[in-house]
Amino acid sequence: MGAGVVIGRSGKAPPALASGITWFAINIALPALAMHLGAGLHLEPSLAFLVASQWIMFVGAWMLVAAVGRALAWSPLRTGALIIVAGLGNTAFMGYPLIEALRGRAALPYAVVVDQAGSFVVFASLGLVVTALYTGKRVDARAVARRALTFPGFIGFALGLLAGATVGLPAPLDLALERVGLTLTPLAVFAVGVQLQLTAIRGEWLALLLTLGWKLVVAPVVVLGLGLALGVAAPVLDIAVLQSAMAPMISSVLLAEQEGLEGRLATAILGVGMIVSLATVPLASMLLRTILG
Question: Whose CB has fewer CB within 10 Å in the chain, the N or C terminal residue?
Answer without folding.
Answer: C
